[in-house]
Amino acid sequence: MAAAEPKPPAGAAAAAARRLARGCWSAFWDYETPKVIVVKNRQLGVVYRVVQLLILLYFVWYVFIVQKSYQDRETGPESSVITKVKGITSSEHKVWDVEEYVKPPEGGSAFSIITRIEVTPSQAQGTCPESVRVTNATCDSDEDCVAGQLDMLGNGVRTGRCVPYYHGAFKTCEVSGWCPVEDGASVSQFLGKMAPNFTILIKNSIHYPKFRFSKGNIENRKDNYLKQCTFDEVSHLYCPIFRLGFIVEQAGENFTELALKGGVIGVIINWDCDLDLSASNCNPKYSFRRLDPKHVPASSGYNFRFAKYYKINGSTTRTLIKAYGIRIDVIVHGQAGKFSLIPTIINVATALTSIGVGSFLCDWILLTFMNKNKVYSHKKFDKMVDIPDRGAEPGPWASEPSQQDSTLTDPRGLAQL
């Protein structure tokens, strides 16, 4: 029977634990610093300095000057928009004022100016031929029309009769609804003759709550300044009264074509404010562009319908109006920035850290492509060995003398890299 192995005394284990604790405590207060090796190689030195210079220029010019990354920023200001349109125009049959051609009349950030209408007068509840634009509306006999059928894109409930159309030799199914239908009796009227001279007041105020900064786009004057001015980017920046023709022209559109088919124009107000400067340097910048897909025939243009109701001999009748117009969407965006210590420290630290990319690149070139890459590797990387306790015989962990020791006496060394 094998003899039991002797247990180490308790005092030896406690002593080993104390030595370990003292070693950890002593190592805690050690200072470590990276090893620096100077490589005498002009080509590598040029690469190293060029990379450092490019990184430095990037941070100084782009990050700090262009992007102003030393600032705390707020995007998307709180904004309010009030609009007002003025002007009169006429069509073939009447004179139109603001109350009739501006929809909706509240004066918000999105409104429409009617430039052409298709009027279907004197519609009343009754029966009439369906529009030929409705799917399966054409017919040859009553059998082609199903009584009670309701087409969601049609103008009423089918009666089951096939009747002659308003004009032409063909027939369509009869429907019960508002008659006559739009296609059969509508009359077109153009309102855009004087529309380019309409004036639009766009009153805008913004607020950046983080910086407690507010400003508006109207000159703070007590005289009749707004009654005498129109917008000019140089001389009347704070007179936000725009001619409709000017807006369409700045958006790159032909006014007559736009008035006939309708369209959506965006008035973009940009408030980019550097609050390290005075408030007078925070000014609105206006731009204009068309928002609806002009080159997509299926979805370009803009129109909507509305009706005006009245009674004749106790019967309700209406005038249906299909309106084409120019819709104006006022869009406000921007950002404000002000110096802050935290983003400045973060970006400076990032810049200093990024400069080390040059060292990484040069190390890679040395270790991969240079003739003396092994010499550089021995100089840069120390290879540690496990040293046994004193008095003990060399164990399996003892290593042979490092190859680094042999390179220390190499007279050709790194100076030949």
UniProtKB/TrEMBL annotation:
Recorded hits in Pfam families, A to Z, give: P2X_receptor
Chain ranges passing through the membrane: 46-64, 348-370
**Residue span of region Disordered:** 391-417
**Keyword Iron among record annotations:** no
Q: List the disulfide bonds.
A: 128-179, 139-162, 145-173, 229-239, 273-282
Q: What biological processes does GO assign it?
A: calcium ion transmembrane transport; response to ATP
Q: Which PROSITE patterns does the record associate with it? A: P2X_RECEPTOR
Sites of glycosylation? 197
Q: How does it sit in the membrane?
A: Multi-pass membrane protein
Tell me which domain of life the UniProt entry assigns to the organism this sequence originates from: Eukaryota
Composition bias type Polar residues, residue spans: 400-409
Q: Which reaction does it catalyse?
A: K(+)(in) = K(+)(out); Ca(2+)(in) = Ca(2+)(out); Na(+)(in) = Na(+)(out)
A molecular function GO annotation: ATP binding
The UniProt record gives the binding positions of ATP as: 84-86, 199, 303-305, 322
Kindly list the GO CC terms recorded for this protein. Answer: plasma membrane; postsynapse; receptor complex
Keyword list, A-Z = ATP-binding, Cell membrane, Disulfide bond, Glycoprotein, Ion channel, Ion transport, Ligand-gated ion channel, Membrane, Nucleotide-binding, Receptor, Transmembrane, Transmembrane helix, Transport
Sum up the protein's function in the record's words. Answer: ATP-gated nonselective transmembrane cation channel permeable to potassium, sodium and calcium. Activation by extracellular ATP induces a variety of cellular responses, such as excitatory postsynaptic responses in sensory neurons, neuromuscular junctions (NMJ) formation, hearing, perception of taste and peristalsis. In the inner ear, regulates sound transduction and auditory neurotransmission, outer hair cell electromotility, inner ear gap junctions, and K(+) recycling. Mediates synaptic transmission between neurons and from neurons to smooth muscle. Receptor for ATP that acts as a ligand-gated ion channel.
UniProt similarity note: Belongs to the P2X receptor family.
Subunit organization: Homotrimer and heterotrimer; functional P2XRs are organized as homomeric and heteromeric trimers. Homotrimer. Forms heterotrimer with P2RX1. Forms heterotrimer with P2RX6. Forms heterotrimer with P2RX3.
Q: Which PANTHER family match?
A: P2X PURINOCEPTOR (PTHR10125), P2X PURINOCEPTOR 2 (PTHR10125:SF4)
What NCBIfam families does the record point to?
Answer: P2X
Instruction: Please state what the protein is called.
Output: P2X purinoceptor
What is the native source organism of this protein? Molossus molossus
